[in-house]
Specification:
- The strands form five sheets. Strands 6-12-11-8-9 form a five-stranded mixed sheet, with no helix packed on it. Strands 13-2-15-16 form a four-stranded antiparallel sheet, with no helix packed on it. Strands 14-1-17 form a three-stranded mixed sheet, with no helix packed on it.
- With 235 residues, the protein is an alpha+beta fold.
- It is built from one helix and 17 strands.
Length: 235
């Protein structure tokens, strides 16, 4: 009788363990499927900029007094698309990391940079001349002073907003750093394409930004496990 009771107890324990393992595997598989579905959903489309901004004229070189030097035109085909407000999960703690805005051929590269709050933006000087990066923007005021070729200085972007960047030595140099408190933003490619992945289903307000201001907003509904396709036109 004792042996029989022990055998039954062992069998029950094994069945319970198998059931626990099966449930754990099912839970893990379900979480993985939900994560994959989330990554494969969101908003994507194109920001169509019909009229490009005019580049700032470069000052004449000393070596060619009276004539403008060779012009390095910043890439004015790119804008930024972002969510006006983000889902609660977007505010989970994340490592913002670092980003780079180079100074090359007397211009900032890239002309538009988008980062999260807390990101350190490095401003290396890849020219053979001095530069002096500064901003008077409400979101971030700074003045890095003059520094030579091969040097780099960084700034931590600690508040959301638009940071307009200039060079105190070269007045034609300007750029934008857009700082967000959530990760749902994208700088468009040269054809205007953008993608905001990993968005849960729901209704959102999408914003198209170009050269200093929000130019267009659109209400968008993201379906469960799918993509919302949106084209934004900036006249």
């Amino acid at each position: 009788m004792v042996l029989k009771a022990l055998t039954v107890a062992v069998a029950v324990a094994l069945l319970s363990a198998d059931a626990t393992i099966t449930l754990a595997r099912a839970s893990t598989a379900g979480a993985a499927e939900r994560s994959e579905a989330k990554q494969n959903s969101g908003i994507r489309g194109r920001l169509d900029i019909r009229k490009l901004a005019n580049p700032v004229e470069r000052r004449p070189d000393v070596a060619t007094a009276g004539a403008a030097g060779p012009r390095d035109v910043p890439d004015l085909r790119r804008g930024v698309v972002y969510l006006e407000t983000a889902p609660r999960s977007a505010f989970d703690e994340r490592d913002p990391g670092r980003a780079v805005m180079d100074q090359r051929n007397e211009r900032f590269v890239p002309h538009v940079l988008a980062v999260m709050v807390g990101t350190v933006v490095d401003f290396p000087n890849s020219d053979l001349i001095y530069h002096n990066v500064f901003s008077l923007s409400r979101a971030k005021r700074f003045d890095l002073g003059r520094y030579a070729a091969g040097k780099s200085k960084g700034v931590r972007m600690d508040r959301p907003g638009v940071v307009r960047v200039f060079c105190d030595i070269h007045s034609h140099m300007n750029a934008f750093v857009l700082v967000f408190n959530h990760p749902f933003f994208d700088v468009t490619d040269v054809e205007g394409r953008f993608e905001l992945p990993s968005l849960p289903s729901g209704s959102y307000t999408l914003v198209g930004w170009y050269e200093g201001e929000a130019r267009i907003t659109r209400s968008v509904v993201v379906p469960p496990g799918g993509w919302a396709e949106v084209d934004l036109v900036v006249q």
